[in-house]
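Extended Data, panel c. Modelled sequence:
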Amino acid sequence: MEVQKGDQAAQAKIWRLIYGFSESLVLRCAVELGIADIIHEHGDTISINQLASKIPVNSVNVDHLYRIMRFLVHMKLFSIQSVKGELRYGLEPAARCLVKGWDKCMVPSILSITDKDFMAPWHYIKESLGKDSPTAFERALGMNIWEYMADNPKKNQLFNEGMACDSRLLTSALIQDCKEMFEGILSLVDVGGGTGTALRAIAKAFPHLKCTVYDLPHVIADSPDYPEVARVPGDMFKSIPSADAIMMKCILHDWDDQECIKILKKCREAVPPKGGKVIIVDIVLDVESDCHYSNMRRCMDLDMMLNTGGKERTEEEWKKLIYDAGFTGYKIKSISAVQSLIEAYPY
């Protein structure tokens, strides 16, 4: 009997893993239907029929909607209660991240990560294991991720909106937790800064800074023209504009070690000998940790491996990169985000 119970538990675990994709795709469905927005705007709990009347689908099958909501309740995104014999739905705390129009909204990240094309590389994990194999992204979509973004403007916009969403969450943590990082410097270049969302927030919080976003020409061409932020197109492997500090948020994890060293050397050349620094905002893996971000960090490590050929790194791996690029020291600070802050000192 004990063996049978063990077998049942093992099989149940495997079934949960098989259907692990279901939560992210049902979450995407909830976002596309705007369920959290509808309940938020309603201002109170809502019945299934009221919800059905407001979602953007013609002739809603209420039974299907009820079963989707039952799954979302199980995911602890929405609450359910019986009011005078009628089931009514409300928002759980996590569902507030699905409500559009505020700085903690995660909808762009959800739509980007669960996009069909951006999920396709996960079907090519095995094919990418060869020592000199193309990335899983190349296997799935026929070109590397940077070529694909340049050739597909709509997907590039989706990708950039997802990155801007992550930047908003991350920048909030930086401004809140790391004010001292921006003291003593007058200019800041955000390398790979995308749409400039993060740098604009920093510029507003620290108006003494001259802020410049530096990215590939097609990214700069599609980015908003914020008055607080200068925009410069270019290639970080060739040169980086000079500034008191260079910042890279979630950039180095896209690249292998040798490419990272090349980028870091260009950063080192761009800052002054006295007081210059390079600010790296990226994940620092602790493979033994079991904190609430740990599994996400491991997932993002695989994400980098499949999509860019990059990786998330441990402190020892960061230390080696920084010293191999000619820096003389560094320090790491935890912040209220999945990433950490690494300050690298070039001289």
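The chain is about 45% helix and 15% strand. This feature is highlighted in the accompanying rendering.
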